[in-house]
Specification:
The structure holds 2 protein chains of 2 kinds. Chain A is α/β, with parallel strands linked by helices. Chain A is built from 13 helices and 12 strands. In chain A, the strands form 2 sheets. In chain A, strands 6-7-8-3-9-10-12-11 form an 8-stranded mixed β-sheet, with helices on both faces. A 4-stranded antiparallel β-sheet of chain A has the order 2-1-4-5. Chain A starts with 13 loop residues before the first strand and ends in a 16-residue tail after the last helix. Classes of the chains: A alpha/beta, B alpha/beta. Chains A and B meet through helix 6, helix 7, helix 8, helix 9 and helix 10 of A and helix 9, helix 10, helix 12 and helix 13 of B. Bound molecules: iron/sulfur cluster (2 copies).
């Protein structure tokens, strides 16, 4: 522990507070935890990037925030939502119909990866918008006016897009139309789960820029879940890295990129090919991500960690503050930084050659 | 290594498809997926083709290994026209000059993006990998084949091989399946392997290792790779490590090609520049773009035009920030930038009428205001 009192998270204007949140699946008597006792605060007005590889728990976190985990997944713990001018709401206590009525779309919207499956193929985009507007008692006239404006914000021509069926639009157009649907009721928060993964490079980049634009214009809080560290670094104020169903590091984006303290984060920075880093600094991460049935004892990263010690096989490090606004779940953050090079500090771990 | 005769040579190749309109409402349209592309792939060379979906890169790759027949132009394997060899093999047992078709087929292999679906779900790894050996090396005994398969599994890191050899594809992880698919292609002892987005589906932590593995195996068995990807960072990694080339495709055309570092650090085509803009780089930016919105994009339109109805002249003109009137009318040829580096843009020619042609009006978002 540090001697100087770390700034308390509650100094921040918190919009979501997750406490001891787990998601588990009961597989024939075997419990699989795909999100493991997570504590996390999302700040109002921020763009938070949640980064992890497949099976890290990142999508579960997104679903749990909105209490949208699908059966037979079980959520435990509390997610509290703090509206700007009303009393806090414990999202995890609400029933499905209460959620629909009070929270979803109006307060928080969920944009998924596959616009294809989010739209009903027999309905036009306009009909989708109308359906959502009417379900929440918003006048058609006024609502569609907003829809048109949103389309234009997202560089969609409303006269072309509104009367179209989903299949008549390209993947990038569909995804933008879905984004517009997400923002149509003026929510506070938009949670995006891999919203660009199925799209081409130029479209991904365009959508990220458009998100930055609409976030500004409509005063949104964005939670952007992705495996793409390069992409999310463009707009995230903070990055939260997940490994083995937990958060293992959280910090402002610049600090993650330049001064990451967790060995997994540093390995990830070296594993992501970029267009400028020297080829010799890029290296994969040996070993594989644990599956929920056998997460290693102690620190879940210890079998793959180049600086693991005895202690790491026994005790599980907590996500503790190591610096202002920077937390990491590792016993040896200083050693990680001196032993494992990253592109920003001019070099990866070249000794890592022996396979 | 003789650089004289390419392994595969495409000359002005065009591949087109009829696209069925949904619900048969309109008549079918012809999509020219590959439109007059010339490309040589040399012995032991790695060429990465980069482009967005629908740009024709997969079709071009498949045409290069003889899976799509070009409408016009030619595709040859070491000087033998693949389709002439194919036609001859049907007629009189393959006795043309040059290589017989079945040999060409064996020499040009492919690994798919989705390794799992390309592996027979009902066969064990052993029988999947044994099949090419039975076909191409019938003299091998059963134990010999098992040894050979085991040695390969070990080499690619699936060890101990005995743990893997009797499993079924679904019992392997995505990365392991991809390695099995790679072995299967390699057992044919091919001269070129088409790797179609075979890295993109893997988790970030596995990509570098898979590309390294492909390159290590290349050293062992002498093969060329035609590596297809939408990700310019992956393309850079594999070509830079092997001194290869990157080709950029847009709507059926190869708009720029050259040695990797030339294309990445000295891009000439406005589309290549747009792709590089779109490729975020944590290594150099060290931070977020902040307020920089879409206005900063080096593009005049976000969306790609319909491939069945591509723009006239230079197909990039409706999105190109440098477009001038002549670009609407005339399609640029490929011009040499320097050495091996070529690009299809008029701006390469100092004396082209492009320079006196009026600039095209319009910028991003214009199409939103005027519905037609
Ligand atoms: S706690 Fe130990 S094993 Fe875990 S990341 Fe830190 S050093 Fe590595
Ligand atoms: S030829 Fe014209 S439209 Fe095409 S890329 Fe060059 S400047 Fe742009």
């Amino acid at each position: 522990m540090q001697t100087t009192e770390p700034p308390r998270q509650s100094d921040k204007d918190v919009i979501f507070e997750a406490r001891d949140v787990s998601v588990s699946f009961d597989m024939e008597g075997d419990e699989s935890r795909v999100l493991d006792s997570v504590d996390f605060d999302v700040y109002r007005g921020e763009t938070l990037g949640v980064v992890g590889e497949s099976g890290s728990g990142k999508s579960m976190f997104a679903s749990a925030l909105l209490n949208a985990v699908v059966e037979p997944g079980q959520v435990t713990g509390d997610v509290t939502y703090y509206p700007e001018d009303r009393d806090p709401v414990t999202v995890t206590d609400l029933t499905e119909s209460e959620l629909k009525e009070e929270i979803r779309w109006k307060e928080m919207a969920f944009v998924v990866q596959s616009a294809q499956s989010a739209f009903n193929p027999t309905m036009t985009i306009r009909q989708h918008y109308i359906e959502t507007l009417e379900a929440h008692g918003v006048g058609r006239q006024e609502g569609l006016e907003r829809a048109r404006e949103l389309c234009r914000d997202l560089y969609l021509n409303p006269e072309q897009v509104l009367p179209s069926y989903p299949h008549e639009l390209s993947g990038g157009m569909k995804q933008r139309a879905l984004l517009a649907l997400g923002v149509i009721l003026d929510p506070e928060v938009v949670v995006l789960d891999e919203p660009t993964a199925a799209l081409d490079l130029l479209m991904q980049r365009a959508i990220v820029s458009l998100l930055a634009d609409i976030k500004e214009k409509y005063d949104l809080t964005l939670v952007f879940v992705t495996h793409d560290l390069n992409l999310i670094s463009l707009i995230a104020d903070r990055l939260a890295v997940m490994y083995a169903f937990e958060f293992i590091e959280v910090a402002p984006t610049e600090r993650i990129l330049n001064d990451a303290a967790h060995p997994y984060t540093r390995a990830l920075l070296n594993a992501v090919p970029t267009i400028s880093a020297p080829i010799s600094t890029m290296t994969g991460i040996p070993g594989s991500t644990p599956n929920p049935k056998d997460v290693p004892a102690g620190c879940s990263y210890n079998p793959r960690c180049p600086i693991a010690k005895e202690e790491c096989r026994i005790d599980d490090p907590q996500l503790d503050p190591i610096h202002e606004e920077h937390s990491a779940a590792c016993f040896y953050p200083d050693e990680a930084r001196s032993e494992i090079g990253i592109p920003a500090t001019g070099g990866g771990d070249d000794e890592e050659g022996g396979r | 290594m003789s650089a004289d005769e390419p392994v595969v040579s495409m000359d002005d190749a065009t591949v087109q498809f009829e696209s069925e309109q949904l619900f048969g409402l309109a008549k079918s349209q012809v999509v020219r997926a590959v439109d007059g592309v010339s490309l040589d792939i040399r012995e032991n060379e790695v060429v990465a083709l980069v482009g967005e979906s629908g740009c024709g890169k997969t079709t071009l790759g498949k045409a290069a290994i003889g899976l799509h027949r070009p409408e016009s132009g030619t595709v040859s394997y070491r000087g033998t026209d693949i389709w002439e060899a194919k036609d001859a093999s049907g007629l009189f047992g393959g006795s043309v000059d040059g290589y017989p078709f079945h040999e060409i087929r064996r020499s040009l292999q492919m690994i798919h993006q989705d390794a799992e679906s390309s592996l027979d779900a009902n066969s064990t790894i052993q029988s999947i990998l044994e099949e090419p050996l039975i076909r191409w090396e019938p003299q091998l005994s059963r134990p010999d084949r098992r040894d050979r398969v085991g040695a390969f599994l070990d080499y690619v890191g699936l060890s101990p091989p005995d743990e893997y050899i009797d499993r079924f594809p679904h019992q392997l992880s995505g990365g392991e399946q991809q390695r099995v698919a790679l072995i299967r292609a390699l057992l044919m002892n091919p001269d070129m392997i088409l790797a179609d987005e075979s890295i993109s589906a893997l988790d970030v932590s596995l990509r570098i290792d898979m590309m390294d593995l492909m390159l290590r195996l290349q050293d062992e068995i002498n093969t060329s790779y035609l590596f297809i990807t939408h990700d310019i960072s992956n393309a850079r990694y594999i070509t830079k490590k092997s001194d290869g080339r990157i080709g950029i495709m847009y709507l059926g055309n190869l708009v720029e090609i050259g040695p990797v570092e030339e294309v990445i650090t000295n891009p000439q085509h406005p589309y290549t520049k747009a792709l590089l803009w779109a490729t975020p780089d944590i290594a150099s930016s060290g931070g977020r773009i902040g307020a920089e919105g879409i206005e900063a994009a080096p593009l005049r339109a976000i969306d790609v035009p319909d491939a069945a109805n591509p723009p006239s002249g230079c197909k990039f003109h409706d999105r190109c920030p440098e477009a001038r009137e002549v670009c609407e009318e005339v399609q640029p040829d490929s011009y040499r930038v320097d050495g091996d580096h070529e690009t299809a843009c008029f701006r390469m020619l100092d004396d082209h009428e492009y320079w006196s042609s009026p600039e095209l009006e319009g910028e991003m978002g214009d199409q939103l205001a005027t519905p037609d």
